[in-house]
What we know:
heterodimer, A: alpha/beta, Rossmann fold, 6-stranded mixed sheet, B: mainly beta, Porin, 8-stranded antiparallel barrel, 10 strands, about 10% helix
Amino acid sequence: MKGPARSAALGAFIYLALLAAALLGACSMGKVSTTRHALVYGVSLYQSMYVEGEDYTNNLTYSDNDAVSMGSILAAAGWEEANIRVRARGSGTTTSTLPTKANLFADLDDLAASVSSSDTVLIYFSGHGTYRSSTDTTYFIPYLGISDEASPSLYYSLCVSPAELAAKLEELPTDKVFVILDTCYSGGFVDTGSATDTAPQNYGIFDDGTEPSTVLYALGNFGELLSDNADRYNATPPITISAAGAEELSYENPYYSHGIFTYLLLESAENGDSNNDGYITASESYGYILNRFESVWNSQYYSSIDPVSGLYADYLPRISGGARDLVLFED
Amino acid sequence: MRRVSAVLLTLALGSSLAALPSPGGFRFDLSAYAALPVTWYADGPALRHSGWGASAGAEYELEAWVPGRLELSYFGYAPSAISEGGELYRAWHGLRVAALAGYRFEPFEALWSSRLGLLAGGALTAAGYTDTNLAFAYPSLLAELRLDLAAERESFLWIGLPFEYMFRGAFRTASLGLALGWRMGPVARAPSRPAPRKGARR
């Protein structure tokens, strides 16, 4: 290659290199503009659940507080206050305003009729969750989901299963949807898509401290993960964050006056902006919760067994799979 | 900490490979790169990330041809920019094994004794979404334009423009990078610059 051609080739290479460097350096951030709607539910008191003579009660203490605080933090973090509907036992006195399954589905019907495809929707629930072994189904339990009888029993038809919730969410015109659950067994609502959760659904078996690296896990299960990748799962499932795995309990604590998970979720709205861009995404919030969970709860409950359920008392919040993420809070 | 360990492991592996005797046309190199991936899905926004990676490579060189190159890389990609609608794509990191082949030629023989190379191939990646416990895997296609500087030396620096097209489930990611590498091992010249024959008549 002679002089001019040589110079042109070298010039082209240098140009491409400089172009790549310039593109790498450019990272502008625009203003996020989406109308946000939130349904925030909390159930502390499941009617008259206290059973005389028993050493525990099925009522919770802080789920109402979780919901009220979640509503407040959303209003302070970019969610339009008029579009936040909080339903907690303390917020209403009649069944029509209480956090029941019927009201949740009616609220979702309202949203299906009113939101646009560019809007963002969040469903938050704090309360009880349960697992039904006969159908291998997880539920969260709204108000009325547990009976008012002396011998408490569940009414599954008044509880919400993952399939029921997914069917209702399908009716929304938007695919920008958050589902955040602070209940026992809530990992049953988390769809990992083509990814796999490397932590087992009963996190307690990690008590020996051998939590695997995600990359090493992927290497060890490469064929299976590659096959899942080829299935090309739905690109836009709801971004779901759960307090616990599908086989784990979730706890509340008087020291925090909240569920542990919700306390850290609220904290992430203040401190979770890891890249300081003014936006806290679901992944940032989850990462913050995960990092804090160890010191706030799990470090105190290694090898502890819940006396009622017989399950491990340490647990781990979960998040759904897929490459997509959404802005959860604005700083 | 896990990421740092993996990078050190990759570099140690590359150094070990480099320390091996390299008979014939085997060459080894270490490199680092910065990358600019763009991710999208059907009906979804195309959004930019930034990223980095470190690689150790071993290749067989047959004059100007590179019939086989294996490359092990550890990389990390940041979350993407955020769309006006509040969407973005997650950060991820992983370990990539690539197989490539290519050709090198010398357009700049009088300038830095440099040469250009074109490599193409495929890769498989084991990855995790950063700050989660979610693991996944995906295949990708690779192409790289490489400029070897002072290629007549036994060891030399090279700069490259690696391109990768990733098939991540329902998502696609295209990444253009800028790489700087250090190649070790005996030199192998391309045929466009043959050595003079002894005793040849004028």
